[in-house]
Amino acid sequence: MPSEAFPAPLANRVRRVATDRPWVWITLGWRDMMANRAISLTLGAALTVFGWVLALLLFEIGSTWAILPMTAGFFILAPLLAAPLYETSRRMELGLPTTLADAVQGFRRPGTQIAMMGVVLLLVHLFWVRVAGLLFALFFGTVGIPSLDRLPLVMLQSDALVPFLVVGTGFGFLLAAGTFAIAAVSLPMLVDQEVSFLEAVTISIQAVLENWQAMALWAGLIVLFTGLALVPFFLGLVLVLPLVGHATWHAYRDMVVR
């Protein structure tokens, strides 16, 4: 694993890529996933089960309104949870055999910096859930929250639905765009190199800004694939999570100079 800090100035660390390059990342991600099916699908299944458990807990405590913002918040935490997938692709690139135990080591290199990045993403996620709750209360009130099966109908019949969607979507888009910029390549970079999370975030933001067209396509593909995967009650995440995780490694390798 490369261990040098920054062999080149920050300004020289980012490569320009073609706008359609995300399709190549998806292709390479699929190759990595198929070459490591047991590891990739196990990790995807574990995160899918976690989604089921979380949704069940929210349903049991009567916080059905929180299921949607918590699901949306998944996009914020997903780059961190994919660290074992980055490690799997890293080891595959080096020609090293990989076990599930090897893949999990992705969280530990360098562990402190990844933990700090995780804290940042978790705080962003909690902030989003809190704001979503406040917006729901502001537009729909806090008394008599309907059951999950009635919630969509109640919202559709409310005059507050359109302003709620406009404000919520607008705020969510800004928060998601900022989170995407700081996490797009910072997590695989932390798995691959001994750098601080601030340096990795700086490079990630620079990569997004200098390749904004390709990254806009990449963000759209992530949202599309993940959104479709969530429809059958998270089942599609078993495939989509490892695919996007492995592809993100190749996005990092394409855009960042070691």
UniProtKB/TrEMBL annotation:
Keywords: Membrane, Transmembrane, Transmembrane helix. The chain crosses the membrane at residues 38-59, 65-86, 114-140, 160-183, 218-245. Pfam families: DUF2189. It comes from the Bacteria. This is DUF2189 domain-containing protein. It comes from Paeniroseomonas aquatica.
